């Protein structure tokens, strides 16, 4: 076996793809243009750098689809989940990580692997020969994006993604704010106090909404449209949809009791989540924004407890690109017009760190099997990975395709279980039990093949 696998992009998907293929004995060349060629959002040249939230979301593998995806990636001996577990931070029932050590660990693991070679030259074309995986993410470089557009014969689809601001912990007024996870969720005290909460009265909330709606926003260039992914809406866009939208979204007050004034029920609550292990940085949860920097400082300092806040990073907005995967990719994530090329990660139309890494995991394994002269079928649609790959490569309507998080709505229904909200707990448990059995069988079949 002399063929190499070339992987373009050292984010979540590319890093996981390289790890999986290399562990199967395939020689991998991992191409990453950073730090030689930068992007709007990245700050380092590390593999697996997290540019938005530091959360991998729910870690509940019995009642949550993303938690199930965590389980499947751990069962596959994934690098991204191993690194996340090693550098996790208290976050209630979620899995949040200390982003810098996390990326440093991913980078060190890949660079020390005997089957992985790294290259820091930008790739700007789609090769005609060799096995390739393109995992360049939503911030695909303009030159490569143009090459993809030429090959697919379609315009790149675009949406706009916003980044939440990060606050220095020392600048938060703890005589106003308090530490508590919603419903005190978590098994340890650290987990139960993983979030920092800033309460608002009705008058404070109304004034905040007024300021938010009136604030200066980033202007779009001619020809650009604000096609946001619904799971990552800027707070101003949410507020424009209705004055109460934020209070039933990221600012919902349920499950929280103000320790300073326990009898005073907040009208709304702004939550901040620890962004590093030292606890010196906190990001404002769900506060992605396209406000201009000056406006952000003024508006966010209206939040009680943040009146003297100092910001390590303000929010921002950038254009992301993704493929119309249902029309362009087959069920092995291969480009139909160039089967030697696979795509993985967010550029395929999955949303989220974990989903991106999971698609990288599948692409890496599939490409490795191709090089070894075998065919690896996708996981069953009853699994989280299988449901995702089925959605992006054929299950979704191409006319309305937009980035998708993993969710139980993508899974085949289970017969004999109660529908609706009242039957949800039993139904979700049924989905996860079935998925684990089916996913283990998929893994065991590969072990038999590789023996």
TrEMBL record:
Cited InterPro entries: FAD/NAD-bd_sf (IPR036188), MnmG-rel (IPR002218), MnmG-rel_CS (IPR020595), MnmG_N (IPR040131), TrmFO (IPR004417)
Task: Give the SUPFAM superfamilies listed for this entry.
Answer: FAD/NAD(P)-binding domain
Q: Does the keyword ATP-binding apply?
A: no
Q: Where in the cell is it found?
A: Cytoplasm
Binding locations of FAD: 9-14
Superkingdom assignment: Bacteria
Domain (MnmG N-terminal) ranges = 5-374
Q: Which residues form the signal peptide?
A: none
The question of whether Acetylation is a record keyword is answered with no
User: What are the alphabetically sorted keywords of the record?
Assistant: Cytoplasm, FAD, Flavoprotein, Methyltransferase, NAD, NADP, Transferase, tRNA processing
Annotated catalysed reactions: uridine(54) in tRNA + (6R)-5,10-methylene-5,6,7,8-tetrahydrofolate + NADH + H(+) = 5-methyluridine(54) in tRNA + (6S)-5,6,7,8-tetrahydrofolate + NAD(+); uridine(54) in tRNA + (6R)-5,10-methylene-5,6,7,8-tetrahydrofolate + NADPH + H(+) = 5-methyluridine(54) in tRNA + (6S)-5,6,7,8-tetrahydrofolate + NADP(+)
- Tell me the cofactors it needs: FAD
What EC number(s) does the entry state?
2.1.1.74
Recorded hits in Pfam families, A to Z, give:
GIDA
Positions the record marks as coiled coil are none
**Function per UniProt:** NAD-binding protein involved in the addition of a carboxymethylaminomethyl (cmnm) group at the wobble position (U34) of certain tRNAs, forming tRNA-cmnm(5)s(2)U34. Catalyzes the folate-dependent formation of 5-methyl-uridine at position 54 (M-5-U54) in all tRNAs.
HAMAP family linked: TrmFO
Q: Which family does it belong to?
A: Belongs to the MnmG family. TrmFO subfamily.
Write down what this protein is called.
Methylenetetrahydrofolate--tRNA-(uracil-5-)-methyltransferase TrmFO
Annotated source species: Celeribacter arenosi
């Amino acid at each position: 076996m002399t063929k190499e696998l070339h992987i373009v992009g050292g984010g979540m998907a590319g890093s996981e793809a390289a790890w999986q293929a290399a562990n199967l004995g395939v020689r991998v060349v991992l191409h990453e243009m950073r730090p030689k060629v930068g992007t709007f959002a990245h700050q380092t040249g590390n593999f697996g750098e997290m540019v938005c939230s530091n959360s991998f979301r729910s870690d509940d593998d019995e009642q949550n689809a993303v938690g199930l995806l965590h389980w499947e990636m751990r069962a596959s001996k994934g690098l991204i989940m191993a690194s996340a577990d090693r550098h996790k931070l208290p976050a209630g029932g979620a899995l949040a990580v200390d982003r810098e050590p996390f990326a440093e660990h991913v980078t060190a693991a890949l660079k020390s692997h005997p089957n992985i070679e790294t290259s820091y030259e930008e790739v700007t074309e789609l090769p005609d020969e060799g096995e390739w995986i393109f995992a360049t993410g939503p911030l695909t470089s303009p030159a490569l994006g143009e090459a993809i557009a030429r090959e697919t014969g379609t315009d790149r689809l675009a949406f706009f993604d916003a980044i939440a601001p990060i606050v220095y912990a020392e600048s938060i007024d703890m005589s106003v704010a308090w530490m508590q996870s919603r419903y005190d969720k978590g098994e340890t005290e650290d987990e139960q106090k993983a979030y920092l909460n800033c309460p608002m009265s009705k008058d404070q909330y109304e004034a905040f909404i007024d300021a938010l709606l009136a604030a200066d926003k980033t202007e779009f260039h001619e020809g650009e449209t604000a096609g946001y992914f619904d799971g990552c809406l800027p707070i101003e866009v949410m507020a424009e949809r209705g004055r109460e939208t934020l209070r039933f979204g990221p600012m919902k007050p349920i499950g929280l009791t103000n320790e300073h004034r326990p009898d005073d029920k907040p009208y709304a609550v702004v939550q901040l989540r620890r962004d590093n292990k030292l606890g010196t940085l906190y990001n404002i949860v769900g506060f992605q924004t396209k406000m201009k920097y000056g406006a952000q400082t003024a508006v966010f300092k209206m939040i009680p407890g943040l009146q003297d806040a100092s910001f390590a990073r303000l929010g921002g907005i950038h254009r992301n690109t993704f493929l119309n995967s249902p029309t362009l990719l087959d069920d092995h994530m291969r480009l139909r017009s160039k089967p030697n090329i696979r795509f993985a990660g967010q550029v395929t139309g999955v949303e989220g760190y974990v989903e991106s890494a999971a698609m990288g995991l599948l692409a890496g394994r599939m490409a490795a099997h191709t090089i070894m002269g075998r065919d690896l079928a996708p996981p069953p649609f009853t699994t989280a990975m299988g449901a995702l790959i089925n959605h992006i490569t054929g299950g979704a309507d191409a006319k309305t395709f937009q980035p998708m998080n993993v969710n139980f709505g993508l899974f085949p229904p289970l017969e004999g279980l109660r529908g609706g909200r009242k039957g949800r707990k039993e139904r979700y448990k049924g989905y996860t039990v079935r998925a684990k059995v089916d996913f283990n069988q998929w893994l065991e079949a590969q072990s038999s093949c590789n023996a």
